[in-house]
Amino acid sequence: MNSVLPLILAMLAVTDAAVQVQVNPGALQIGNSRNLNIRCSHVRDKVPTISRLSYLLISFASDAEKPVFRYLASVSSVDGLDYDTTAAVAGNITRGGESWLSLTWSYPLFSRVGLYKCEASGINLSGAARTVSHIVEVGGVRHLDASLFDVIQNQSRDFEQLKTDEERLTASYLSLKSRFDRAKEAHFSISAAHNGRRYYLSSISNVLVANEVDAICALYGGYLAEVDDDAEFEFIKSFLTPYTQYTGVLCSGTDEALENNWIHANSKTMVKYIKWSPSDSRGGRSENCLFFWRPHGWFMVDWVCQQGYANYAVGYLCEIPE
Ligand SMILES: *[C@@H]1O[C@H](CO)[C@@H](O)[C@H](O)[C@H]1NC(C)=O
Ligand SMILES: *[C@@H]1O[C@H](CO)[C@@H](O)[C@H](O)[C@H]1NC(C)=O
Ligand SMILES: *[C@@H]1O[C@H](CO)[C@@H](O)[C@H](O)[C@H]1NC(C)=O
């Protein structure tokens, strides 16, 4: 298809309802419109001017007063798409239904303002060549000067890139989170909320190392449970009561460094509160960690910080702020 052809055809063309041009957006805002789409379509009428369509063609004239149309694109039943434009071009000639040709520019500039002509060409029922056409005008408002528009266009492109990156990151985050949640559900029983925290009771383990389980609590955004007052102790005690399969549950508090000087290993603060079991005989230098102890009604005892607990069913309790 060469650009001389539409000029000749333009002289022969008549306007016909069967050929339509849609423009989106109707009024171009240079600097604000992301896309400009020109869509030319042809639907066969009941009494068709054109009974067999051979091609659709879009041409453009920048001067609406003295239009000189320049070829942009065409779609033909024989040759398919042909174009001479930076727009994204799509189209199809169909026998019975709608035939169409569509041009889309990203970040349209002021040079897109003008007249767009859509021509449909084919033969009528007597076999004579017919061309019908429709012209639309695209007006434009310049919102930004060109250099600023350039910046915005670049930023817009960067933003698209970021969005794609973010979608990819979100997808891997969600997959990681779902694996993490599955591990959490498999390993912990989780309390109701109390003062903006939840308590995670680990499953029973044969080996506990206080430092290591503190790190596991940290993985879930918390620390070994630090009991600060009666209310917190009572809440934890009610939470633990149904778990009769446990002998003891490790919580925060150690006097490993200095006998009877109980500190929280995570926050390095003094332990303010210990609900000692009245029936526990304190273990001295060999027992430097705090446990809730079921045989003593879940009151607290001091016991060894790390070893295998073959004869006991023990777990640990994390405190996780929400
Ligand atoms: C064109 O339309 C025909 C029939 O409607 C369809 O089979 C064909 O896939 C279409 N081609 C394109 C490129 O859209
Ligand atoms: C086909 O077009 C020719 C030339 O314009 C015209 O003379 C003829 O009447 C048309 N036939 C029909 C069926 O419209
Ligand atoms: C926009 O991006 C193009 C190509 O990446 C670059 O050449 C141009 O300098 C950029 N313009 C501005 C204003 O950043």
TrEMBL record:
Q: Which PROSITE patterns match?
A: C_TYPE_LECTIN_2 (PS50041)
Task: Report TM segments.
Answer: none
User: What are the boundaries of the signal sequence?
Assistant: 1-17
Protein name, per record: C-type lectin domain-containing protein
Q: Which UniProt keywords apply?
A: Signal
Coiled-coil spans in chain: none
The C-type lectin domain sits at: 194-298
- Would the keyword Thylakoid turn up in this protein's UniProt record? no
| The UniProt record lists the keyword DNA damage | no
Q: To which species is this protein native?
A: Lymnaea stagnalis
Matching entries from Pfam families are given as:
Lectin_C
